Structures are given as C-alpha cells and as structure tokens.
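In the laboratory, one determines a bound structure by crystallizing the protein with its ligand and collecting diffraction data. In a computational setting the workflow is compressed into a single prediction: the sequence and the ligand go in, and a structural description comes out. We illustrate the idea with pyridoxal-5'-phosphate.
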Amino acid sequence: MKYRLLSPGPTPVPERVLTAMANPIWHHRTPAFEGTFQKCREGLAWLFQTQQEVLTLSCSGTGAFEAVYQSCFSPGDTVITVAGGKFGERWGNMARAFGFNAVVVDCPWGEAIEVAKVKAALEQHPQAKAVVVCASETSTGVRHPYEAIAALVKERDETLMILDAITALGVWDLRPERDGIDVLVTGSQKALMLPPGLAFVSLSGKAWKMCDKSKSPRYYFDLKKELKNQKVNQTAYTPAVSLIEGLHESLKMMQEEGLPAIFARHSRLARATRMGVTALGLELFAKTPADSVTSVVQPAGLKPDAVYKGLMNRANITIAGGQDAVKGKIFRIAHLGYYDELDIITVLAAIEIVLRQEGYTQFQPGAGVGAASEILKDGFVAQDATAARRS
Ligand SMILES: Cc1ncc(COP(=O)(O)O)c(C=O)c1O
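The predicted complex, in structure-token form:
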C-alpha cells in the first residue's frame, strides 16, 4: 500500500525538491554554492515578507530557538512565555534551562491565550525582555492571537515579541514588520516542503540591539556571527548543503504558486478538513483552529489512539496523535505544505473507514468526504508541482 504522510512535520517533499537534493554536493566555500545561497536569501526574504536578513541555520526549529535565546538574552533576564501546548511549554522550559527567569502564562490546552493574561504578566514584570508565543500551537491545532500580543509588546522599547511560526509561516499572511514581530522562527519540514534539518530566523533592529547586550555563553549558535557570514553568502560553519539545494527548489515552487495562492490553498484545505470531520459528528479540539493542522477529539468509547493507529496500521497513513495531556484522546490531520484537495479527500475517506471498523457508526458513509467536497467543489486549484518539469 502507498505510504501517505499527513503529519504536521515532517510533511511530504515534492519530487522536484527531492531531485534537486540528489545533485552532486557543492563545496560550500565556492562561487557555485554562494550563488545558490544568495538566491535562497532573496527567496526567504520574499517568503518572510521582510526587509531584514533571514538567517538559515542547520538545525531543527528548536535549535533556532536556542540560537535566539543565547544570542539575545543573559542569565537572570525575565522571559514571558505562553503555555497551552507542548511547544509553548517547551519555550518556558528552555528559558529555565538557560538560567532565565521564565514567567509562564497558563492556558488550557485547546484554547487560545487570553490577551488580558499576557497584559497582566507584562504589567507585573515590566522588566521582561521578551514575550514568546506560538502562532500555531501544533500540539493542539490552536491559532493564538499573536497580533494583539504584539501590539502590547510594541509599546515597550526593551521587550521583544518572539513568534514561533514553525507551523504558521507559509500557511497564512504573516509579516514581521507589519505585525510587530521582532523574532520570527520557522523550520524546513513544515510549509517549506523540505526534509527536517534547516531552521530560519529573522530579527528586527530592536532584537539585533538586544544581541549586543547578551552575556549568555554561546559558540555554534551565534546569530551575530551568522549574520556577518550570511550577508556575504557564506555560513559560519559547514551548512546542510543538500538541504540548501532543496530549499532553492522549494522556494522556486512557492514563488511559482505565489503567496496569495498559497495562503488561499491552505485556508481552503483547512476549511474542507474541518467541514469533513464535523460532518462525521466529531468535535474539533481547537477553539480557534489554525489553518495548518486540524485537531479532532476522538469519539468517546474508542480505544486510545484508535484513529491514529488504525490509519497507521491498516491504511499506511501517518497523521499525528495527541501528546502529553491529550495523548490517545485526539488526532491531528496536517494540511501545511505540499498538500492538495485529493489528499484531504483521501484522508477523510480513510478516517471514515477506520471509524466504522472501530465501531463508531454515527454517520452516513461518505458524509465527511461529501462535506469536504462542498468546499472543494470549485475544482482542483492547488499548485501543479510538475508544471515546470513538463514545460
Ligand atoms: C509550533 C512548533 N514549535 C516548535 C516545534 C519544534 O520544532 P523542531 O521539531 O523542528 O525542533 C514544532 C515541531 O513540530 C512546532 O510545530
């Protein structure tokens, strides 16, 4: 049976990108590599919709957060983090690991953070050097109201707005300068349609100034050192050369599709997925769902992880299950990156079959697929990844 990957990272990689990564390895201290890297820098600035340099790091998204924490702050600094899911909680834990004073704003899993709670934390800790929020909390499928939080942070000269956009950038319209985001982080294995292994980060002028004051020990992850190198199309250390070849191709694909079409496609696939699962009588777990991943409460009475495991073992489809507090209780369907309408129809059809096999029969066969088709009935407008190859 064909393998199908619908997890919110890693996500599928298009053939064009896989082929590009199979090119012979360039040495990274050569004009050939520098030419590719320059095009990637331009493409990333386009994707981030920023005037700032977007740095490429050879690590996963968590590594980019380490780089930001070590480069911007000093032990003893106060950092406010928003919990409410595995990744929000991670940024609080990491702050503690670096000896910062982590002020964690609690939020029930599945809910969006109340902006008033962050406002209160800022008022209580006016010396805070940063507020850290996930745009899309992948573990719950929630979109947090980061724009309103950024508006609060903007008024403070000594506080940075740090946005984990690891499953948000390339999904919806996010612009650091317009939205008041000082530090924007994303990773390769999500909407960028690449394998895991690269992370990307942009810093505002305010954030770069903060870097001048940081006293945290650092060596490999040093954003100022990377900035100096990347401005001349080099990296401080050996980069993941093949992934950068892939990045060059994936950025080309994204530019062919165009940002408005990319955002519209994600919104459409997300709406179709939500319509499909609710038509099966299932409940969405996220109160304010993000367009990157749809989290669904598993019907009562089923074995823990019945849907997730049923898809994995019987349909060769990997979606995601629940983590930590909601382990076994929810399942999550990804639609960020290289997905089209038929991916959604296929996974909904497979979910219907697995649900019936598991004994949940409170829907008409085809109800989920039918509801999703209503949203998708204008036709197949998702990007054609093979177009460039055929022309
Ligand atoms: C919102 C969010 N933040 C952080 C991470 C961690 O990124 P990585 O696994 O690339 O280190 C992920 C990964 O799924 C994520 O979805």
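The longest helix spans residues 259-279. Keep in mind that any predicted model is a hypothesis to be tested, not a measurement.
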